[in-house]
Amino acid sequence: MVDLIITNGDSAGELLRRTFQGTEVLPWRDILHEGPVPLTETPEELADVRVAYLASVGAGDEEALKLDFSARFRGLSINDNFDRVFLWFEHDLYDQLQLLEILDWFAAHPREPETFVLVQADEYIGRQEPETISEQAAAAQPVTDGQLDLAVRAWAAFRQPTPEAWAHLLNEDLSALPFLRGAVLRMLEELPGPDGLTRTERQILTCLNTGSDLTSVALFGAVQKMEDAEFMGDWSFWRVLDGLALGPSPLIAGLEGAPFQVEDKARVEAYVKSQPALTTLGKEVVEDKADWAEHHAIDRWWGGTHLTNARLWRWDPETEHLIAPF
Questions:
Q1: What is the pLDDT of residue 286?
Q2: Arithmetic mean of pLDDT, 303-310
Q3: pTM of the model
């Protein structure tokens, strides 16, 4: 019996490959909580959008990214060659968005239920031992029609031009995918709040407001500990940190070597060892005396929603409600 495992990336894939020798592993390499994920006619069109974005932020060479996405589609297209397909994903936002995309694809390309199974746990794959991985495999369950239907609706909601449909998911029964509710809420928290900050940005400023002399790399670790389910890699974090440090109205100062550039080793070393601190505006924002959205230009994507100062959807973390653009 030859199985295919689809999982969240290379680190998890390597552990699964070592644990289940002879099994094929297909890593899903995309940071869907970042950049544009708009509605498109085909998955291939979305892949083009994602490749362009990932290349633009230095996540890889554009041609190499194109080859990786093409290989991903080839892996999906030959899934019938395998006796079983395992979807093996974690509970955090990064994984849950990938899981929605993959389930959406399989909803349109169905397999026999007993040959299509899902493994989920609130533990990170890369931190497991082969013994616990084997135990999780034994607990795998066939993917249900209810899970496929929910994933199709949620994936479409995420890609809408406003976050309303995604937020509305919180009013629905999401128990078919037990970690989806947490992911929906965490993604909403990456919209600007009433203070103009996302949750990640707010956590960064909160850490810096304690007076501790944290290096950039220590700051990353401290912010990770504030998450119920860690989902953000270091490169994604550096992009958030750059956004707070650069521009005409920065909230932090002292970030040496910004913006982060992996090709320049000297700058990388200076960057991770620097000790950023709050600016005067940063302190005002932390103390709810200023709205950062009034001090800097916003032009970024959140799923299928293009956020700008003129079209700024916000999320109030206290009331857990969307705030529509004025």
A1: 96
A2: 98
A3: 0.96
d(CA 179, CA 121): 9
Q: Can you give the residue ranges of every domain in the chain?
A: 3-188, 199-297
Q: Class assignment of domain 199-297?
A: mainly alpha
Q: What are the tens digits of pLDDT across the range 230-250?
A: 999 999 999 999 999 999 999
pLDDT in tens, 10-52: 888 888 988 888 899 999 999 999 999 999 999 999 999 999 9
Tell me the C-alpha distance between 66 and 59, whole Å. 12
Query: Beta strand 3-7 with 84-89: parallel, antiparallel or unpaired?
Result: parallel
| Cβ pair 53, 35 in contact under 8 A | yes
Phi-psi domain of 303 (left: phi exceeds 0; alpha: psi -120 through 50; beta: other):
left
Phi/psi-derived region of residue 100, left when phi > 0, alpha when psi is between -120 and 50, beta in every other case: alpha
Domain 3-188 has CATH 3.40.50: yes
Q: How far apart are CA 257 and CA 267, in angstroms?
A: 5
Q: How far apart are CA 32 and CA 78, in angstroms?
A: 24
Residue type, 264: D
pLDDT tier, 122 (very low <50, low <70, confident <90, very high otherwise)? confident
- List the end-to-end C-alpha distance of the chain, in Å, as a whole number: 58
- Confirm if 276 and 282 have CB atoms less than 8 A apart: no
Show the 3-state SS of 121-132: CCCCHHHCCHHH
Question: Which residue type sits at 195?
Answer: D
Tokens of 65: 């990214």
8 A C-beta contact, residue 104 and residue 152: yes
